[in-house]
Amino acid sequence: MNNITRKLVLSALTVVLTVVALGTTTFAWFTLTNTAVVQPFEAQIVADTGIEVSLDGVDWYTTLTTTLIEDYITNSSFTTFTHLTTAIGYSNFYTLGASGLEAAASGWLQIPIYFRSNSATAIDWTAVSITSPLTPWEVDVAHLSTTGAVAALSLIDQDASNAMRVSIQGSVGGLNNVVTYEKSSASNNNVVLGGDGSTPVDYSAGGTGAAGSYNYYYAKTGALIPGTAAVVVAPTVTAIDGTTNAQRIIDLTADTTYGTSHWGQVTLRVWVEGWDADAYNSILGRMITASFTFFGTAA
């Protein structure tokens, strides 16, 4: 398969997490009173000559500007991020509640991306970057972090992007296809969580919780979130690149519905993985930037 010269670049998606008080009924690593809210979303999707992109299948562009994407989000149902988990990476999202996992109807960002072309027959995901400033966080309670024991009021560096997940859902070979990405263990002491979507993993560590968010919550509350001993999360990849780890995300349909010979639509989702070892109060108020690169391909 040869990469054609027309590429699509989704760049500089910037998510700012800030503290919002919700009262005393919000349970999980954002301990009891906090969740996270998205601020204006900075994004741009650029397509070279021959490929166009759209957010609705009606208006097509060679560049989807920040303003267009911000307008889409503003007019969508998305309001805030919260602590979620999913075993499949595209639906069946749950919040981590005091009585166990609770079905979630919101809390993640979801954006459709349409492609149309007279030359490409498929789209590959060839690069991804999720970053956050590595800045100190003042520990509010002594606990076991992913880098070792920390004392209350000490300062530790935290990378909020370690807790984020990005998935892209499309169709390949006529079947539903989902690629979920999380950062690798080479990223600022990240603990890779991704499972196989079905096998439970015990993070209770004898009742006090494994290092990171699990032990932090125990230190704050004296308990563990129900389900800590049997965590099931979506399979993830930790490397996406155009040399050896490109991911096919969609086979374009040979159809003139959108005025070209081929078209297709994928769904981009972004969320905070509630079971992640870094998904706790230390990430609140941090900025997270994600960038993605897609290539049109032809067999």
Question: What does the main sheet amount to?
Answer: 9 strands, mixed
Could you tell me the strand content as a percent range? 35-45%
* Tally of separate helices: 2
**Which whole number gives the mean pLDDT?**
81
Tell me the number of strands: 22
Distance between the termini: 5 Å
Helix content: under 10%
Count of the separate structural domains:
1
Secondary-structure class:
mainly beta
* Radius of gyration over C-alpha positions, nearest whole angstrom: 20 Å
- From the spread of the alpha carbons, the general shape counts as elongated
Helix-strand topology string: EEEEEEHEEEEEEEEEEEEHEEEE
Low-confidence parts? 1-6, 18-41
Comma- or semicolon-separated keywords:
299 residues, mainly beta, nine-stranded mixed sheet, six-stranded antiparallel sheet, 22 strands, 43% strand, disordered N terminus
Secondary structure elements and pairings:
Elements: E1 2-16, E2 18-21, E3 34-37, E4 42-47, E5 51-54, E6 63-64, H1 66-74, E7 80-81, E8 83-85, E9 94-97, E10 100-103, E11 109-117, E12 122-131, E13 135-138, E14 143-145, E15 148-150, E16 155-158, E17 164-172, E18 175-181, H2 213-221, E19 247-251, E20 253-254, E21 262-273, E22 287-298
Parallel strand pairs: 8-21
Antiparallel strand pairs: 1-4, 1-22, 2-3, 3-7, 4-6, 5-11, 8-9, 9-10, 11-21, 12-19, 12-22, 13-16, 14-15, 17-18, 17-21, 20-21
Description:
This protein has about 300 residues and is mainly β. The protein has one domain. About 5% of the residues lie in helices and about 45% in strands. The chain contains two helices and 22 strands. The protein has helices at about 65-75, 215-220, and strands at about 1-15, 20, 35, 40-45, 50-55, 65, 80, 85, 95, 100-105, 110-115, 120-130, 135-140, 145, 150, 155-160, 165-170, 175-180, 245-250, 255, 260-275, 285-299. Strands 5, 8, 9, 10, 11, 17, 18, 20 and 21 form a nine-stranded mixed β-sheet that branches. Strands 6-4-1-22-12-19 form a six-stranded antiparallel β-sheet. Strands 2-3-7 form a three-stranded antiparallel β-sheet, with no helix packed on it. The longest helix is centred in the N-terminal third of the chain and has 9 residues, at about 65-75. It is elongated and about 60 Å long.
